[in-house]
Amino acid sequence: MASTDDQPRTVEQAAAELNLSRATIRAWIAQRKLGHVRLGRAIRIPADEIRRLLEAGYVPPERSR
Q: For the whole prediction, is pTM greater than 0.70?
């Protein structure tokens, strides 16, 4: 069985985890910027997709010279 961290997120859970609005998550889904799974009318965002967004937006600190 998958751990809780690997469970797909609802739109509300993804928004809370990323500190974004539900409208932003829904807009990214509509624009196909955010991978998702449709189960009937339900939308789930895979945990890997949340990780991808965080890694893609990561800006490393500047190193002292």
A: yes
